[in-house]
Amino acid sequence: MSKTYAEIIQQIEDLKSEADRMRRDEVGGVIARIKEAVAAYGLKPADLGFGGPRAKAKAKPGPKPRKGAAAKPARKVKFRDAGGNVWGGRGPRPRWLREALKSGKTLKDFAV
Q1: How far is it, in rounded angstroms, from Cα 111 to Cα 76?
Q2: pTM summary value
């Protein structure tokens, strides 16, 4: 005989309750073993990465690379001025270049 939807829902709820009880029992045992190991080895929170000076030093891995940074080659500099400003020729022209062009210079003056 097949079960009804209501019976299956009740079975699911019963299994969830049983799983929660089993998890609580297992977590209690795991915590007890961890406490025993911490006491036996004299471990401190910082040894486990839970704050403190050691953990803070390890928590600074540096800047994260951009997504796809390894796949994209660096853009080449096509234009440079005497002040060290550069532009790759893509996107809007930077202010330093616009101002130089208004003053009478040409793009060829800045070509690399």
Answers
A1: 12
A2: 0.36
